[in-house]
């Protein structure tokens, strides 16, 4: 057919032009419609986008790689808002099961029901890091002890070392129950399993247990071997991260001939070895797990008090709170700090408390008021001032 001017109509199988409406502003700032013709070549007209032809399996594989290497939650959120297909495939169980801990590292101030629901979805998909993080949040922050311990146990069954160590700390302290609920042998067994997987804090905890005969038969030589192994792993982890950041580590590997002053009379001054943290290492503290950072932020926003008469672990990288009064062990010299474990005590000693600890008179008044925890009165439960 032809128009009145004699021009032929375009054929139905070829789309040559497309009308779009573009809004522009006039000089007064008001919007006005402007119709713009977008011309398409006959070669590309009618053809589908190549992205739509990609199988879902390939897209899921790409998204899984992205989720496993995400450095912050926004890396994953930006994918969700890209298109409807990404939004549906990114929530696939395969993608969520491989998500990195930093992908769901929610800040305590941003905690909400949707964040809780997303962590639960990741945990249900089989993500062991999500199980551990949500378990710690439920057990210590939301005070849902049974559900939190179950999630940590689910991660521990999958050989998740931080979950095994956290369950060991719960057994050592009887967290969530009374002092009679402590199970030292179970704590040592969990620490041994986590140590086998290379967990540094578990190695250090097990070394101190063997040296002190705490929950296991005393073996000083074997305990010292575990401490050396823990410090060697700690140093290797710090050196590898420093090498990636181009940080000079020459001073960390030099012997310090000057003695390190010890405030406790039971521990004379010894020459410092910067190679081993339990014997005077000066390497920086290891990066805290996102779950520990969440606990620290959660209780810091509440004035640093988890409850009436309850205290936080004095090690800044821990964040664990007491679940009952006098649950944590105190420093046997000053009594001003308390720790959930020997590993936290050893780290905090070399980072901060070594310069602050000072002997004071015995603080038996508070214990005489009915303390049921690990205080200075109970000899085996004392936290030694020097590491």
- In N-to-C order, the SSE pattern is EEHHHHHHHHHHHHEEHEEHH
Low-confidence stretches: 14-20, 254-276, 366-385
β-sheet strand percentage: 5-15%
Question: What is the number of strand segments?
Answer: 6
Widest beta sheet: strand line-up: 1-2
The quaternary structure here is single chain
* Separation of the first and last Cα atoms: 95 Å
Radius of gyration: 30 Å
Helix count?
15
Indicate the percent of residues in helices.
Answer: 40-55%
Overall geometry comes to globular
Would you tell me the structural class of the helices and strands?
A: mainly alpha
Provide an overview of this structure.
Keywords: Metal-binding, Zinc, Zinc-finger. It comes from Hibiscus trionum. Pfam families: F-box-like, TPR_27, zf-MYND. It is built from 15 helices and six strands. With 387 residues, it is mainly alpha-helical. The protein has a domain at 290-381. It has a two-stranded antiparallel ribbon. A hairpin with a 5-residue loop joins strand 1 and strand 2 (31-39). The radius of gyration is 30 Å and the shape is globular.
């Amino acid at each position: 057919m032809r128009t009145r001017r004699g021009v032929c109509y375009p054929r139905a199988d070829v789309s040559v032009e497309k009308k779009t409406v573009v809004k522009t502003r006039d000089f007064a700032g008001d919007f006005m419609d402007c119709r713009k013709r977008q011309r398409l070549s006959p070669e590309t007209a009618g053809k589908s986008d190549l992205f739509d032809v990609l199988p879902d399996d390939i897209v899921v594989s790409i998204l899984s790689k992205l989720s496993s290497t995400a450095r912050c939650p926004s890396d994953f959120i930006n994918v969700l808002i890209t298109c409807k297909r990404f939004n549906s495939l990114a929530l696939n169980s395969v993608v969520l099961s491989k998500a990195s801990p930093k992908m769901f590292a929610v800040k305590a101030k941003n905690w909400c029901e949707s964040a809780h629901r997303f962590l639960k979805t990741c945990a249900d998909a089989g993500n062991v890091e999500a199980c551990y993080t949500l378990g710690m949040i439920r057990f210590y922050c939301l005070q849902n002890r049974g559900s939190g311990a179950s999630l940590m146990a689910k991660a521990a069954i999958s050989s998740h070392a931080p979950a095994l160590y956290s369950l060991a700390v719960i057994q050592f302290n009887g967290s969530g129950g009374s002092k009679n609920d402590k199970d030292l042998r179970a704590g040592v067994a969990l620490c041994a399993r986590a140590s086998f997987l290379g967990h540094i804090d578990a190695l250090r905890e097990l070394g101190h247990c063997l040296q002190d005969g705490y929950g296991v038969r005393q073996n000083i030589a074997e305990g010292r071997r575990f401490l050396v192994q823990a410090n060697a792993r700690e140093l290797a982890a710090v050196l590898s991260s420093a090498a990636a950041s181009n940080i000079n580590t020459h001073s960390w590997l030099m012997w310090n001939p000057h003695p390190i002053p010890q405030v406790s009379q039971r521990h004379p001054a010894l020459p410092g070895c910067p190679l081993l943290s339990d014997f005077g290492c000066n390497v920086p503290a290891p990066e805290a797990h996102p779950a520990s950072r969440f606990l620290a932020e959660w209780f810091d926003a509440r004035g640093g008090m988890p409850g009436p008469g309850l205290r936080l672990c004095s090690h800044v990288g821990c964040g664990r709170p007491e679940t009952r009064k006098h649950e944590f062990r105190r420093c046997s010299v000053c009594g001003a700090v308390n720790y959930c474990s020997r590993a936290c005590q050893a780290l905090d000693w070399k980072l901060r408390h070594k310069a602050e600890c000072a002997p004071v008179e015995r603080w038996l008044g508070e214990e005489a008021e009915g303390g049921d925890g690990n205080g200075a009165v109970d000899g085996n439960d004392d936290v030694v001032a020097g590491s």
